[in-house]
C-alpha cells in the first residue's frame, strides 16, 4: 500500500496533504522504509495515534514494529503541533487585519477633522475680518490644533505602514511554508518574530 493510500484509508486525509508531505519528507521515508512503517501500524481515530498492527507483529520483529509506531507517532505529533502553530499565526494575522482596519478608520476621522478645521479657518477669516487681534489668537489656536492633528495623522500613517509591513512579512512566510511543504521550528520562529516586529536578518 502506498503512503498516500494509507493516509487516505486511515482517515488522515482530514489533515489535508500537509501530513502526507510532512511524513514523506522525513529522513526514514524512502519508499521501502515508509512502507514498513505503514504496514507495522494502524491509525486509531479514537486514540488519535498510531498503534501496532497485530498481523504485522505476528510475522515480524516486535522491537522493529514498536520503533516504526514510535516514528509515525512522533511524525504525527510533530505535524499536529506545527499545524496548531500555523492556525495560531493565522488567527494573529486575522487580528492584525482588524487593527489595520481600525487604523484606517481613525485616519479617515482625523483627515475629516483636518478638513473641518481648514473650513473653520476659512469661515473665521471671512466673518471676522474686522476683529483681527482677537481672531488672530483664536486662529493661532486652531492652527496649532490643526498642526497637532496633522502630526497625529502622519504618525498614524507611519504606524499603519509598519504594521502592514509586518503583516505582509508574515503572509509571505506562511506562503513560503506551504509552498515548500516544510513546516519547521525555524520557520515558525521567523513568523513569530515577524509578528512581533523583530528583525530576523
Q: What this model shows, in words?
A:
By secondary structure, the chain is mainly alpha-helical. The protein has 2 domains: 3-81, no CATH class; 86-196. It contains 7 helices and 2 strands, in the order αααββαααα. It has helices at residues 3-9, 17-25, 31-40, 54-59, 62-127, 132-180, 185-196; strands at 41-44, 49-52. Strands 1-2 form a two-stranded antiparallel ribbon. α2 packs across α5 (62-127) and α3 (31-40) crosses α5 (62-127). It is rod-shaped and about 105 Å long.
Q: Quick gist of this model?
A:
The protein has 201 residues and is mainly alpha-helical. 79% of the residues lie in helices and 4% in strands.
**Order of adjacent strands in the largest pleated sheet:** 1-2
Radius of gyration: 30 Å
Taken together, the total number of domains comes to 2
- By secondary-structure content and strand pairing, the structural class works out as mainly alpha
Tally of helical runs: 7
> Per the principal axes of the C-alpha atoms, what is the gross shape?
rod-shaped
Report the order of strands and helices.
Answer: HHHEEHHHH
Which descriptors would you attach to this protein?
single chain; 201 residues; mainly alpha; two-stranded antiparallel sheet; 7 helices; 4% strand
Helix-strand layout with pairing:
Layout: H1 3-9, H2 17-25, H3 31-40, E1 41-44, E2 49-52, H4 54-59, H5 62-127, H6 132-180, H7 185-196
